[in-house]
Amino acid sequence: MRTESKPTIQDVAKHASVSIATVSRVINNQGGVRAETEKRIVHAIKELGYVRNAVARSMKKKETKMIGIIIPDINNPFFPLVVSGIEQQARKKGYYTMLSNTSESPIVESEIINILVERGVDGVVITTADEYGKQFQILQEQGIPVVALDRRINEYNFDSVLIDNIDGAYQATKQLILQGHQDIAIICGPHSTTPGRDRFAGYLKALSDYEIPLNDQFVVQGSFSEEGGYSATRTLNELEVRPTAIFSSNNLMSIGCIKALQDLEWRLGEEVAFIGFDDIEIATFTKPKLSVVSRPMNALGELAFQLLHERILANEVFSPRNYLLSPELKIRESCRLGNIRLNHKRS
Amino acid sequence: MRTESKPTIQDVAKHASVSIATVSRVINNQGGVRAETEKRIVHAIKELGYVRNAVARSMKKKETKMIGIIIPDINNPFFPLVVSGIEQQARKKGYYTMLSNTSESPIVESEIINILVERGVDGVVITTADEYGKQFQILQEQGIPVVALDRRINEYNFDSVLIDNIDGAYQATKQLILQGHQDIAIICGPHSTTPGRDRFAGYLKALSDYEIPLNDQFVVQGSFSEEGGYSATRTLNELEVRPTAIFSSNNLMSIGCIKALQDLEWRLGEEVAFIGFDDIEIATFTKPKLSVVSRPMNALGELAFQLLHERILANEVFSPRNYLLSPELKIRESCRLGNIRLNHKRS
DNA sequence: ATGAAAGCGCTAACAC
DNA sequence: GTGTTAGCGCTTTCAT
């Protein structure tokens, strides 16, 4: 494709009849170059269409000004929002972000980490697809700063910015209880993930605090996906005694759940109340509108970059900082008592 | 941070008592190394925690195996879906993708392009925020292959993978007409963008083919955003004679439009029919369900990478290929006649 | 099968 | 203010 190879700093120097050192000075705005000389050089750069080779530069300077962002699911709207927060802060500080998507595959994640390390990123923000994996070893060995976002990384002492999932689930469940519900189901995410486990724990805690016995039938599992929420809801619908309220552990699951409710003609707000983890676009389009636990996506991203940046600049090791951000319960309509007939078995 | 600097190929060579050339051979699986020697080297690599420095490698080889993807709005679900298509193909061919988001800012886009060029990406797929900008100059000069995705790039002969927006809008409008509507409004996107103009053109064409005079009042403008759709809908609602059908030019606008309809108590499916460009999550949650023009996101991405890849491999210039993919009309409920009272002025 | 050595394009220390 | 020069870590030709 490329015929004549790209011009280098050498070519520019020759063209402007100066040394490469001088050219380098003007490229990097280091000053100390006579105005006239500079003009000649700038002109030569224009004329030749010279572009600084960042690869050579990085090689020399041992820094790339790139940070890697690794997310598990680019199609889950939660992540783009978080990414926007990171990007924004990074740009301000002169860092360029490389975003990669693992599609929840630990194998892909591992590959990506290796590539980023080889490419010499200055740091990485990651929402891992495998909290217990060994893929982080290389990052630690190379001393590359890492911030774990939204999902904990076990056995490594990285900084982390997490959401208080337990509290979020607790608030949601409590709200349902205060509305008079006793038969509250939970659609759980995978117990292999922190959010999966923690949201279940919050649910359990609320039940226990209000002395409502746990009914195993009301605890259903699924993957963090629309399909997961859909089939879980089906299962719930087939129970002899159906729950009067559902708490869904994740945005995608909520969508699946609401779809199932429609398909099964299990009437939201009339026969069953609902609260979901994460705000979703459809929440205000359903009737009744969905109450949700909302996470501060942007803040999550901004904080993550900030922590990362501090570590990149620091030249000594210091102990990990672990942040736990609180989600916010957004009460709309779907958790209201309405005219839901409760199952008054134990009242 | 990093205390002892990272091990290099030199260190490995020393540790295994061989030359760096031999180490390089085993790192790159080039064969021609005695099994026993190789074992020693592999062992040294493990022991030292050596990682190949891709920066140095790229510098030497003049290829990075990285391609850049530039999108204008990571929070518009259309793009993550396209990106998934690109990523998937790229990974298969051994390319790593770097995703960047411009947030529709031509300035940011320009910066990103420069960074990618400096970093030596092997190619770029871009949905530009500025179809007429000069930011592509550098790509052309450097001979870096480019594929324009979803938005045309004028004045440069890059490959392109576009959607037949005219046809999509035509189909939608036609459908509305066939349902008996005459007073069909369009919520237009910015005329500075190809999709904005083309979708309007398709609307116009359908009207003309069916001999329905254009009513200027039914043509409202907005940015490709929720807010754009929302305020456009407000405007339509304030007309003395309101339209009986609305065609919305973009997914985000559709969301804004539907929200406005709700807020204004302008009843969808009863007082006004609707078709929107792009399928959206909420489409099946509204009552009635939304009819939409759906684009093949994944195919778009896959094709884009394929074209790019061909160009990266080719060692001669050839003329640009321009693909136009057809969108598909998904008829659900919102465009049905239902019990909408049409304004029978000219029937 | 292995090694020596010449760069790739740049930065920065040092000389002038 | 400007030039010379020594690498950064790697791949690759050419010897051996």
Automatic annotation (TrEMBL), chains A, B:
> Which Pfam families does this entry report, sorted A to Z?
LacI, Peripla_BP_1
Q: GO: which molecular function terms?
A: DNA-binding transcription factor activity; transcription cis-regulatory region binding
- Residues forming the HTH lacI-type domain are 7-61
- Taxonomic lineage of this organism? Bacteria, Bacillati, Bacillota, Bacilli, Bacillales
CDD domains on file:
HTH_LacI (cd01392), PBP1_LacI_sugar_binding-like (cd06267)
Keywords, in A-Z order: DNA-binding, Repressor, Transcription, Transcription regulation
Q: Name the SUPFAM superfamilies on file.
A: lambda repressor-like DNA-binding domains, Periplasmic binding protein-like I
Q: What is this protein called?
A: Transcriptional regulator, LacI family
**What PANTHER family does the annotation carry?**
HTH-TYPE TRANSCRIPTIONAL REPRESSOR PURR-RELATED (PTHR30146:SF148), LACI-RELATED TRANSCRIPTIONAL REPRESSOR (PTHR30146)
Q: Does the keyword Repressor apply?
A: yes
Please tell me whether the keyword Transcription is annotated for this protein.
Answer: yes
